[in-house]
Structure formats: structure tokens, C-alpha cells
């Protein structure tokens, strides 16, 4: 017989088994003294099971992640067969309103964890997220997008040599898996220290919604939930067409001069060494130089800015794949 789940308390409110609740995390106000509410959407099954958090908008301009979590809710994927699903579509509401990555205090919230109850605005949000939500969570998928016009191929990022996270990434089946160390002050690093198993999803670019990236995020989420027996029985799950390509090492290709940027390379594609990836020209028709692949590999990120400066990161290319 399944165990009967216990009541849980979030933000001072008790949520019983079988309940659906939208709570509001209120930490600060706008300059107009208007309350700023961060909706926390909780769906609980009558049957005991894991607690999973789907979060996005840690960076306010990474809209594609917000769209994925929004659709998880709209499509009722967040109504679990067992266990509990918590959705926070927009963590950094300030940045979302202002179309910026940072908080109004100029800080990147993903560099101030574990935060402080009496610290900067971003630090306070980090503190309350870790103390009010994360202690209840077993697993988390945090959805992100590329910044500064750089478009990420859909990918899951995990730390190297972690068997449990690798298994979960295999379940999600994103097109790419990227091994990357936890960054000090990041949400992922703090969750790891608290024993929460987190997958970090990257896909698309800031201030943009891409339908293909969104669909990859949704389908991966359904596979993730199905793995734990949590997927809404009314939903179907499909295996990805290809297995995840895991990248152990990668490098940035940087612009060798300033000018107008003309990319001819599709994100996610495999290129041979010496392949022309892009051209950089002056605006007067006198100069046009080629940018070539320094090695064979997969293009997992591409700069989509129309103008670049010398030294700008323009392509992220794999240099070593997992055997």
C-alpha cells in the first residue's frame, strides 16, 4: 500500500495531500510601494512520492525558461500521479519586469547564493528561496537561456563524475549534455550542498521564445516525471529520436576583428575543422574575413548579434566528447 503523504508547509501555509494551491512569496515592494508577489504553484497528489521543483526566470531576461514552466502548468503536466510538483515560473520578477538579467541592485542572483536575510535585494531572494522552498525538494530542474544574443542548443548541464545526475540527464534526453563544475554562489551549487539533485536546462537566448527549445524542455520534463512514476496519467511520453551527446570539454571561438557578423552555421550542428562558420565584414563593402572552426566538433552555442567586437565570444564548440 502506498504511504499517505504528510502535510507540508510552504511560506507559512499548510498544503494537504490532494490540494492545488498558488502561494505568493512577498519579500520586497516596488518603488511605488506596490507589493511584488512571486507565485509559487503547488500541486499535490493523494499518493506519497518525490517533491520536484521546476523553476525559471532566475535571470529576468531568460524568457524561454519561463515559457517552458508556463506550458508545464498550462498543459497540466504539473498535476502529479504521485508526489508533489512545485512550479516557480519567474523567480526574478524585478528582472522580468525590467527585461534585465540582474536585480535592481545590479546583482546577478545566480552568484549570491546562499544569500542573506539582511543582505542585498538579490541576496534576500536567494535566502528565502533556499530556506522556504528547497528544504522540501528532492529534485529540481532550473530552466535557463543563453545571454547577450548567444543562442544555446537545448542542453542539460551537470557536474562531472556524478552518477545520479548523469542517470537523470539520460532520462531527460536533451540533445546535448554538458559537463560543467558548480559555480560558487550559484543556485545549483547551493542545491547540491543541501542534497537536492538539480538538472540545469539551457536553451535559446535571452528576450526570445523559441518553439523548438520550448518543446525540448517540455518533452524532457515529461520523461523526467515518468521516470519517477509521477507523470499525469492523461499525458503521453515519447523517447527522444537520438541519445544525448555528452560534451566533456569545449572552447569558445572569438571574433578576430570587429564588424558586422554574418553566421552561416546552425546551432547544434557538427562541423569539421576548417569549416567556415561565419564572416565578419566592415559596413562599407571593403573588408570581409572568414571565421573557421579551429577543430571538429558540435556547435552548442552561437552568437546571433548583428555586430561584434574583436574578442567577443561567437561560437561555443565541443573539443572532447564522452566515449
Please tell me about this protein's structure.
The longest helix is centred in the C-terminal third of the chain and has 17 residues. The N and C termini lie far apart (42 Å). This protein is an alpha+beta fold. Helix content is 20%, strand content 35%. The chain has six helices and 18 strands. Helix 1 packs across helix 6. The mean pLDDT is 95. The strands form three sheets. It has a five-stranded mixed beta barrel. The chain has a four-stranded antiparallel beta sheet with strand order 15-14-12-17, with no helix packed on it. It has a two-stranded antiparallel ribbon with strand order 1-2. Helix 4 links the parallel strand 8 and strand 9. Its cofactor is Zn(2+).
Task: Look at the helices and sheets and give the structural class.
Answer: alpha+beta
- Tally of separate helices: 6
> For the CA atoms, what is the radius of gyration?
21 Å
Write down the overall geometry.
globular
How far the N terminus sits from the C terminus, by CA atoms, comes to 42 Å
What portion of residues belong to β-strands?
25-35%
Order of helices and strands: EEEEEHEHHEEHEHEHEEEEEEEE
Please count the beta strands (DSSP E, at least 2 residues each).
Answer: 18
Please estimate the helix content: 10-25%
The biggest beta sheet reads: 5 strands, mixed, barrel
Task: Write out the strand line-up for the largest beta sheet, numbering strands in chain order.
Answer: 8-9-11-18-16
Mean pLDDT: 95
Residue windows where pLDDT falls under 50 for at least 5 positions:
none
Domain Succinylglutamate desuccinylase/Aspartoacylase catalytic: 49-227
Keywords: Hydrolase, Metal-binding, Zinc
Protein name: Succinylglutamate desuccinylase
InterPro entries: AstE_AspA_cat, N-alpha-Ac-DABA-like, N-alpha-Ac-DABA_deacetylase
